[in-house]
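Example (one chain per record):
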Amino acid sequence: MRIDFECSGGYAGLLRSFHGDSRDWSPELADELATLVARARLFDPAPEDFPGEGAAPPDVMHYRLTVVDGDRHRTVVCNDVTAPLPLHPLLARLRELAGC
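Predicted structure:
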């Protein structure tokens, strides 16, 4: 699995990222991220289940997440307001890894 994650915005106007491939991670991190991706249902829902960025108040964080797992591929663009609830734990962990 490959993950490309970028977070930007917030009060300080941060721009941070996390990019990687599960082959390069520890087995524990690879399992953790695979579980979070599965729980986020990235590959299950219809595209309308991820509403995009939409309008957001100032200083919210914005996210761009691409996950490639075998022949499955999904890119999600959202922010703290529009991110679906199942996606929150994955975003939180990726923010930690990116230093957001």
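Caption: The domain at 2-98 is CATH 3.30.1560.10 (Mago nashi protein).
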